[in-house]
Specification:
Elements: H1 3-9, E1 17-18, H2 24-34, E2 38-41, E3 50-53, H3 54-63, H4 72-75, H5 89-99, E4 103-108, E5 111-117, H6 118-140
Parallel strand pairs: 1-2
Antiparallel strand pairs: 2-3, 4-5
Length: 143
């Protein structure tokens, strides 16, 4: 299974981005408003300059209570794991596990085309298992 197939199955394929100069307060508001755990950091909406998540906010808050007054660029993760739409889902799952990341931007020819979360991966795997179960059940109960 390819990442592009998982992207196609998403209810909302839109990718939310935020600029590196935006404030952490704005970041928190966007995360809450859209009920997401991470945003892609991008000045132009198509390049990936970084990723910033709830985890980043919490970790920085633990070390510096004034992080709320900082910019997204100061707390983002700049070294971002990405994948292509043609990448295999199993490869992405391994990457997510090894690098302990929950969100991976999908990039084609240097342009942001989607984002895959661990929730997307789990949903896809459950759907796949249910399909296989139904197929086996149908086969067993043929008359």
């Amino acid at each position: 299974m390819h990442i592009g197939d998982v992207l196609k199955a998403k209810a909302d394929p839109a990718v939310l981005t935020i600029g590196p100069d935006a404030g952490v307060r704005e970041l928190i508001a966007l995360l809450a408003e859209h009920n997401v755990g991470a945003l892609i950091v991008s000045s132009d909406g198509v390049s990936v300059e970084g990723i910033v998540s709830e985890r980043d906010v919490v970790r920085h808050l633990h070390h510096d209570g004034t992080v709320i007054n900082n910019t997204v660029g100061a707390i983002m993760t700049a070294d971002v794991e990405t994948c292509a739409p043609e990448s295999e889902l199993d490869t992405l799952m391994k990457t997510m596990t090894e690098h302990r990341v929950r969100h991976v931007p999908v990039v084609r020819q240097g342009r942001l085309v989607g984002i895959i979360s661990i929730g997307d991966v789990v949903k896809h795997k459950i759907d796949q298992l249910e399909f296989e179960r139904d197929q086996l059940d149908s086969y067993v109960h043929q008359t």
